[in-house]
Amino acid sequence: MGLFLFITQVMIFSVSILSAPYTDQAAFSAYKFVEAALSKKHEVRRIFFYGEGVLNANHLNTPPQDEINLYEAWKELASSHQVELIVCIASALRRGVLDEDEAKRYEKDGHSMQAPFILSGLGQLMDAAIESDRLITFGS
Question: What is the pTM of this model?
């Protein structure tokens, strides 16, 4: 009976993604995990993109038509379920993933990131770990 209670208990998850969207299966697996968790009525508090994972926030990604557009998938998921999409600012700047404000700050001609993705620091990852029952990491 104790096991049954654990399975039916609503959990709060946060997810950390360390891999680029089309380098391997990690980002797609993270997306499918989040979809599954939400379908089972669990809460997903925050998705944190770190290292190469920040490339998931690049709105200039243009995959072939027969592949999933992970950028659009994350964007839709955030809109539908009010999930925070946090992008590590240090990792993003190193990889040219800038929102409009950072592009202006660094005098760049354009930006490659926009809402609902939000640039922030590692403190958001720490908060996610504290506020969630589980922090699950995808990628290496």
Answer: 0.91
Which domains are delineated in the chain? 11-22+49-138 (3.40.1260.10)
Asked whether the predicted pLDDT for residue 2 surpasses 50, the reply is: no
- Residue 47 near residue 135, CB atoms below 8 Å: no
Query: Per-residue pLDDT averaged across 4-11, rounded?
Result: 66
Q: Is 88 a catalytic residue?
A: yes
**How high does pLDDT run on average in the chain?**
94
pLDDT tens digits along 83-125: 999 999 999 999 999 999 999 999 999 999 999 999 999 999 9
**Contact of 111 with 102, CB cutoff 8 Å:** yes
Query: Cα–Cα distances in Å, from 43 out to 15, 83, 97, 98, 120?
Result: 11, 9, 28, 28, 21
Of 17, 30, 86, 88, which one is the catalytic site residue?
Answer: 88
